[in-house]
Structure formats: structure tokens, C-alpha cells
TrEMBL record:
Protein name: Carbamoyltransferase HypF
Signal sequence, renumbered to the chain: none
Known function: Involved in the maturation of [NiFe] hydrogenases. Along with HypE, it catalyzes the synthesis of the CN ligands of the active site iron of [NiFe]-hydrogenases. HypF functions as a carbamoyl transferase using carbamoylphosphate as a substrate and transferring the carboxamido moiety in an ATP-dependent reaction to the thiolate of the C-terminal cysteine of HypE yielding a protein-S-carboxamide.
Catalytic reactions of this protein: an acyl phosphate + H2O = a carboxylate + phosphate + H(+); C-terminal L-cysteinyl-[HypE protein] + carbamoyl phosphate + ATP + H2O = C-terminal S-carboxamide-L-cysteinyl-[HypE protein] + AMP + phosphate + diphosphate + H(+)
């Protein structure tokens, strides 16, 4: 009998080289024992003089992709802790469910980058990877996660790669995608008809890009459309062919090159270099690039090369590249070679293709920096299928939450963890709907998930809600219908770790559109409550949305309605003389296809239209508000007008008439558009902060949560945060503030309502 320790390590610790790391660390420390994967994470037994120091050593020096959440250390007496050979062994995984976790895809690590730029056998090889980097989630076809259950299965390991794969001292030990030019995938350049062009693919691609061509390039989670980001003519051709007139285009370049065109703080540089390799919004600076990359915006979305193929192409080009999703407008990315040529053949002149299949579509993650660190705008490659901890105090249970219609995502909760999916997109598109259904099955398998209840948005016409209702009906499960903005609030609370017993919260929920409790369209609320329930404590005064969906795409419609409501109809006539105002007013008066809405998203559209920002039509969702934010960022604080705050705070209805009077008067005085745009943001921030502050002051709320798609606006977020500076404020970070985070909120609300509420027919239907 020998005294030692059992260590239970939980977190992202499988598929990241954790076992060989333990093996190497134990050998250096002169310890005996073993390590294995099981259904709960990693289990380690250690004995020896320094066994008590092993947990601290693990925390201080974990593998690059590991995310240790907790190490539970238990003193233990071992009958036979000594292992054969060197004294510490990697044992076969134990228990049902072992090795079922798959880590997110990770950008090329420095060691592999050195390999492809060196002179060894992987020099210039586009599929170089190791335990610390490379594809994971995008190549998995089944469980358990081993090579036979990935799209690398057709590529048998050569003797050299097999030796690396089986050597615990090698960084490629049990790296499932390990390969080399002798045994792995290959890449080539193809024409639109599929013919392979003779020559080395990367060199041929660089030559064509320098000549101004548009290429489709196969990445980790799908194809990208690529062109020279310094070539304005190529950018315009890409926009015309893709029917994407103004939506920002993502860019890729090495860090040194990004610094020539953008302001890159130390924190931003660190985030760019993270294994997630996100697209990060950075202010334009230095040497200018064509305005057409992001018309009207002062930020560009940049990412570093994420794979060896992208590094090799960037090295060959030595200039920034446009790297935008390879899809037709409104559809998801192409992932198959034949599919790409069929769908993108009218856009791209040639295709950089390879023979490693993509198991699932996965968009790039999009983030921006805030004073509190990076904030995720779109969840994607590099984050999923990672999990998030649930806040304390909620009942245990397994819930499937189906999310919303736009920017859809699903969420599964189990054993105190939430798995929030990647961005799936607009569910009306057939291929997106197919990807949504695949994600439902994929994540259930990865999480070994068997739901006990299904949560959906209250809107009956959302395809996600209909899917969830059918899932619940087929399995005989409770169906929890959740109000859209309560889900936003709960998502923010959950991400911030706000416990179920921590007290009520005032949620400032500023959004586009969501069905409210009263049957109207909400989008500018202050909710008061908890996970179990919330009531509307204040809201923006509603206005009609004449034309329904057209009011979302044509900002002038919202402007006329808001100006009329403020008694400024004559100003609307002056600002929009050619618009069919009479017909619009007639429709609003009759209530025909003109639902009432308190949406702050539409309020931003109205204010933007008054300032001449894309009043007739938006080229993409949120364009008017994004351009208004950019314009406001060009003003100084001292220039910002301060208008009277919203009327009606005492009655809980925030009337924006003072905002529009201030706008029209400012235009008449010749106040700069930048100052007026900043004034709009300040008015909204202060008008919503004041009643939220009052709820906390009266003891009705203990904190303020900020959620909804409008909080992807960095200026608005910081203005409201400043107005609440002495109060506890809950923010989003890893969970999108917009509809990409809805499913998390739905899931925790469903958990909070577990028990008798799951049987309440007034709240739960099948």
C-alpha cells in the first residue's frame, strides 16, 4: 500500500494532448502512476515524493488547447500504483461515454508553422497539424473521436506519421488528423468545369489573385471567396457577382500586415493570435484600403491565417486578402467540391480545392474588443463545441433549446453545462434548415444528450419553434414557450454567472423584433425579474411598422412614423419628398400590415434615415444602425447635443419625441451629422439607464443586465455602462447579445420552471 493522490480534471481536457502532457510531467517529476480519459474528463493517479505538487504543476503548465475548470484532489492508498517501464503510463480510456468530447478547431500552432516554412518533410504542406492545432469539429463524422470517425479515415498513416502518432513524447501523439505529403490529403487548383490546372496550387492561386481574379478557397468549415483586398476593381466585381452591394467583407493577413492598415492594441493582437482565430473588428488606420470593403464604416473585420493552406497563400501574396463566406446571398457556405463549383461558378474564376471532406459547415467567429475584453458577435469556428458553466441554483436537467428564426443557434444543457451551437443563420433558406437539423443531431451525440424538456420562442411562426414543438410532441416531452426578450435577459444573466438565488435583475433589452406578451412587436424594454419570470417595467413608446417586413429594410418608413408621432410630419415631408408618404400613413392609420413595435433597432433606423443614411433601403440587416454608430464615433464628446430625456418615465412608456425634435432642430442649425448621431446614442443610453437605475435604487432589482442585438453596438453599450457606472452591470462576452444567444436564455428559463410549472397547461403546451 502506498499513499498517493487521485486527481479528477474537468474541462476541455480531451483531444488536446492532456494525457501525454501528464505523462511527460510525471516523468520529469519522478512520479509513478497512470492517466486515462473517461466520461467525466481525465483521471490521474500519482505517487512519489512530489505527488502533492502535481496538481499545481498541471495548472501552471497545461497544454495550449486545454481549458482546466477544476482539479479535484483526493488522498488515496494504491495497491499497485507503480506502472511497468518508466513508472507512469497512459492507460486505455475507461467507462461508457469515454472519449466522446470533441474540441473546437484550432489555428496552426507556432511549431507547425515552423514545419511548413522549414525544410523538413512537411515543408509547404497544407495539412500540417499536431495535438496543439488543426481541425477537430469540422472533420468528425461519429463517436468516439478517433481517426476512423473523421474525414481523415481514407488517409492511412505512413510509417513515419504512425511512429509520431504512437509516441507519447511526440507532439503528434494521438493527433487524429496527423498527416504528411506521403499519406495525407492534397490540394489543387481547379477551373469552373472541374479540370485540374497543372502546377503547384498555392503558387497558381497567388498568380491569379495578383492578376485580379476571384477565387473560391476550401477552408476548415467551408469555402471562402477570395480576392486581393487592395484591388478595388476585384472587390467591385466580387460584390456585383455575389449581389452583396454594401455588407462588410472580412479580411485576412499576417499581424504585421494588419498593423499597416488598422489600429491593433496589445489586447487585440493577443486575441487575433488565439487558437480560435476569430475575425476581429479593428479601426481603420495607416495605409488606406478601398472604402468598398465596408462602405460607411470605420472598422474592418480582420483575421490571421488559420490553417497551413492560408498561411502559405498569405506568404505568397504578401498583401491583404478578402476572405468572405463562399455562398450565394442568403445561403450557407458551400462545403463540397462539386457543390462549390455548382453554386460559386458564377462568382469565382477558379477553385483551390482538396480531398479532405468537411463534415459540417462552420462559419468564422466574429468578435470586437470592449473595455472588458473580447465580445463575441457571431459564434463559430474555434468556440464550438465548447461548453459554458450554468449559474448556481438552477435545477439539474437536460433541456434542448431551439433558438430563434434569425441568427439561429441551438443550446443543450446537462449536468450544469451549456453547449451553445455555432451560428446557423436564417432558417428560411433550405440549406440552412438542413444544417440546423444536422446540428440538432450532431450536438446531441457529442453531448450524449437526451432532453427532458424542449424550450422554444413564443412566436408560433418561427421555424425553430415549430421544430421544437414537433420534437417535444414526438417524444412526449414538456414544451416551454419563452418570451423573446426574457430569453435575451436570461442569457446575459446566465453568462455572467448570476445565481438563481441572487435576486431580481433589471434587464435593458434593446433589440430588433420579438413577439411580446401583449401580442405587439417588442424591442425596447426594461424587464424586471429572474430566470423563472419577468415583467415589463418600462418600454419605448410603440410606433407602427407599415409594410411589416419592408419596414425593416426601408428606414424611411420608420422615420416617417416616428416624426409623425412627435408632431413633426412637415419635417418628414421635407426629408422624404419622393417617398409614398400618403400611402404609408394610410396603411398605418388603418392598421393594415402595420403592427405596433417598441423596437430600438427600428428607432436607430429612423434616426439614421433622418440623417440621410441609406433611407431608401438597407443593403444588409443592421446597415443603417452600423453606419450611424460609425458616424457617431467621429464626433467628440464636447460636440454631443444633450436633448431632454424620454417623456413618460413615470408611466413606464418612454416617448422618443424629444430625440426627433432635437434631430430636426439640429439639422436646421447645421449641427454636424456626427454630433447628431452621437446625440442619438446618448439619448437612448440615458433614457433607458434612468428607469433601470430607479429599479435598483428602490430595491426592486439588484443588478442591471444588458442584452439584445442593439448591444452589439459598442458605443451604445459603453454609454449605457457609463450611465450605470456605480451599479452592478451584467454584460455579454462569449455569448452573442443578439439572437445567437437566445437559446441559452431559453434553456435556463426552462430549467428554472422545472417541476410543477412543466405541467402547467397555461404555460406549457405540446
Amino acid at each position: 500500500m502506498e499513499l498517493g493522490y487521485l486527481l479528477r480534471v474537468r474541462g476541455q481536457v480531451q483531444g488536446v494532448g492532456f494525457r501525454p502532457h501528464c505523462w511527460q510531467l510525471a516523468r520529469r517529476m519522478g512520479l509513478r502512476g497512470w492517466v486515462l480519459n473517461d466520461a467525466q474528463g481525465v483521471l490521474i493517479a500519482v505517487a512519489g515524493l512530489r505527488a502533492g505538487d502535481f496538481a499545481a504543476a498541471l495548472r501552471a503548465d497545461a497544454p495550449p488547447l486545454a481549458r482546466i475548470e477544476v482539479i479535484e484532489v483526493t488522498p488515496h492508498r494504491f495497491d499497485n500504483c507503480s506502472a511497468p517501464g518508466p513508472g507512469f503510463e497512459i492507460r486505455a480510456s475507461g467507462g461508457p461515454g469515454a472519449e466522446t468530447r470533441v474540441t473546437p478547431d484550432a489555428a496552426t500552432c507556432p511549431d507547425c508553422l515552423a514545419d511548413i516554412r522549414g525544410t523538413g518533410r512537411r515543408a509547404g504542406y497544407a495539412f500540417t497539424n499536431c495535438t496543439n492545432c488543426g481541425p477537430r469539429f469540422t472533420i468528425v463524422t461519429g463517436l468516439p473521436y478517433d481517426r476512423a470517425q473523421t474525414t481523415m479515415a481514407p488517409f492511412a498513416l505512413c510509417p513515419a506519421c504512425r511512429a509520431e502518432y504512437e509516441d507519447p513524447a511526440d507532439r503528434r501523439f494521438h493527433a487524429q488528423p496527423v498527416a504528411c505529403p506521403d499519406c495525407g490529403p492534397r490540394t489543387w487548383l481547379a477551373t469552373r468545369d472541374g479540370a485540374e490546372v497543372p502546377g503547384e496550387a498555392i503558387a497558381l492561386a497567388a498568380e491569379r489573385l495578383r492578376a485580379g481574379e476571384i477565387l473560391a478557397i476550401k477552408g476548415l468549415g467551408g469555402y471562402h471567396l477570395c480576392c486581393d483586398a487592395t484591388n478595388a476593381a476585384a472587390i467591385e466585381r466580387l460584390r456585383a457577382r455575389k449581389h452583396r452591394p454594401t455588407k462588410p467583407l472580412a479580411l485576412m493577413a499576417p499581424l504585421a500586415l494588419i498593423r499597416r492598415h488598422a489600429t491593433v492594441s496589445d489586447a487585440a493582437a493577443t486575441r487575433l493570435a488565439d487558437p480560435a482565430a476569430p475575425i476581429l473588428l479593428l479601426p481603420r488606420a495607416g495605409k488606406p484600403l478601398p472604402d468598398s470593403l465596408a462602405p460607411g464604416l470605420d472598422e474592418l473585420g480582420w483575421m490571421l491565417p488559420a490553417t497551413p493552406l492560408h498561411h502559405l497563400l498569405s506568404d505568397a501574396m504578401a498583401r491583404p486578402l478578402v476572405m468572405t463566406s463562399g455562398n450565394l446571398s442568403g445561403e450557407p457556405q458551400a462545403i463540397g467540391n462539386d457543390e462549390a463549383r455548382a453554386t460559386l461558378g458564377g462568382i469565382a474564376e477558379a477553385f483551390v480545392q482538396h480531398d479532405r471532406a468537411i463534415a459540417r459547415r462552420l462559419d468564422d467567429q466574429v468578435e470586437r474588443m470592449s473595455p472588458r475584453g473580447p465580445v463575441v458577435l457571431r459564434r463559430g469556428r474555434g468556440s464550438v463545441p465548447g461548453t459554458l458553466p450554468l449559474p448556481p441554483g438552477l435545477p439539474d436537467g437536460q433541456v434542448l433549446a431551439c433558438g430563434g428564426q434569425m441568427k439561429s443557434a441551438i443550446c443543450l444543457v446537462k449536468s450544469g453545462r451549456a453547449l451553445l451551437s455555432h451560428h446557423l443563420g436564417e432558417l428560411d433558406a433550405p440549406l440552412t434548415w438542413q444544417a440546423y437539423q444536422q446540428a440538432d443531431g450532431d450536438y446531441a451525440g457529442l453531448f450524449d444528450h437526451a432532453p427532458e424538456a424542449v424550450a422554444v420562442d413564443r412566436h408560433p411562426d418561427f421555424r425553430a419553434s415549430q421544430h421544437g414543438a414537433e420534437r417535444a410532441r414526438a417524444a412526449g416531452l414538456p414544451l416551454v414557450r419563452v418570451q423573446h426578450h426574457h430569453a435575451h435577459m436570461a442569457a446575459c444573466m446566465a453568462e455572467a454567472g448570476w445565481g438563481a438565488e441572487d435576486g431580481p435583475v433589471a434587464g435593458i433589452i434593446l433589440d430588433g423584433l420579438g413577439l411580446g406578451d401583449d401580442g405587439t412587436v417588442w424591442g425596447g424594454e426594461i424587464l424586471l425579474g429572474s430566470y423563472a419570470g419577468a415583467r415589463r417595467a418600462a418600454a419605448l413608446a410603440p410606433a407602427p411598422l407599415p409594410g411589416g417586413d419592408r419596414a425593416q429594410s426601408e428606414p424611411w418608413r420608420n422615420a416617417v412614423m416616428r416624426l409623425d408621432a412627435a408632431g413633426l410630419g412637415a419635417a418628414a415631408d421635407r426629408l422624404f419628398p419622393d417617398a409614398p408618404r400618403a400611402l404609408l400613413r394610410q396603411a398605418a392609420s388603418s392598421g393594415m400590415n402595420a403592427p405596433l413595435s417598441s423596437s430600438v433597432g427600428r428607432l436607430f433606423d429612423a434616426a439614421a434615415a433622418c440623417l440621410g443614411i441609406c433611407p431608401d433601403a438597407q443593403g444588409y440587416e443592421g446597415e443603417a444602425a452600423m453606419r450611424l454608430e460609425a458616424l457617431a464615433g467621429r464626433a467628440r464628446d464636447v460636440e454631443t447635443p444633450r436633448w431632454d430625456l424620454a417623456e413618460g418615465v413615470e408611466t413606464g412608456t418612454l416617448d422618443p419625441a424629444p430625440l426627433f425634435h432635437g434631430l430636426i432642430e439640429g439639422l436646421a442649425r447645421g449641427t454636424s451629422g456626427a454630433a447628431l448621431a452621437r446625440g442619438v446614442h446618448l439619448w437612448i443610453a440615458d433614457s433607458f439607464a434612468r428607469p433601470a437605475r430607479a429599479l435598483v435604487a428602490r430595491g426592486e432589482a439588484r443588478a442591471v443586465a444588458l442584452s439584445g442585438g442593439c448591444f452589439q453596438n459598442a458605443l451604445l453599450s459603453e454609454m449605457i455602462t457609463e450611465a450605470l457606472c456605480d451599479l452592478p452591470v451584467l454584460h455579454h462576452a462569449d455569448v452573442p447579445a443578439g439572437d445567437g444567444g437566445l437559446a441559452l436564455g431559453q434553456a435556463v428559463i426552462a430549467l428554472a420552471r422545472r417541476g410543477a410549472d412543466w405541467k402547467d397547461p397555461d404555460r406549457i403546451t405540446w
